[in-house]
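Task: sequence in, structure out. Protein: N-acetyltransferase domain-containing protein.
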Amino acid sequence: MGKLSPSDSYTVAPIHQHVDLLDQCVQLINSEWPRSYTARLWSLKSSKDTLPTSMVLIDTAENEKSTVLAHAKLSPIPSDSEAVFIETVVVDRRYRGKGLGRFLMNEVEKHCFKTLRLRAIYLSTIDQEGFYAKLGYNFCKAMNMFGTRNAFNTSTKKIWMKKTQPEWNSNDTPSR
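Result:
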């Protein structure tokens, strides 16, 4: 499998529309960040059309059985109802370097900006800032993900990045 091509049969969809893929999704996320199966499953089952939403990149060509290749979780930010925090972005190790992460993020951005009508996307990373910068994300201050006050979190070693609606509009025709 090389880079993505227009003929590839990839779909990005909320996991709650594909509950038969929950187990595959748990296994994928736990392959990168081990956690109890029950806790991970509970988190995925909280996915809904509003937020939080767990998005999965699915390959439907493989033996007519859908395969989860990547995942991203979209979480609400209590202090900013017009923004989202993207977390738990992971691509199956066997499929990395083929454009799947870029494809997943482009589809997630479409969902955030066009479907959910949000104005900003935040994320944090430890070692993928180059990848996100290529996608148009800019460095920003750390933020509070849990309270309703917009107090910045300065205790983390993570790198925080942000993309806004105007930045996305200039890049809203992603290449596959």
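The chain has a mean pLDDT of 89.
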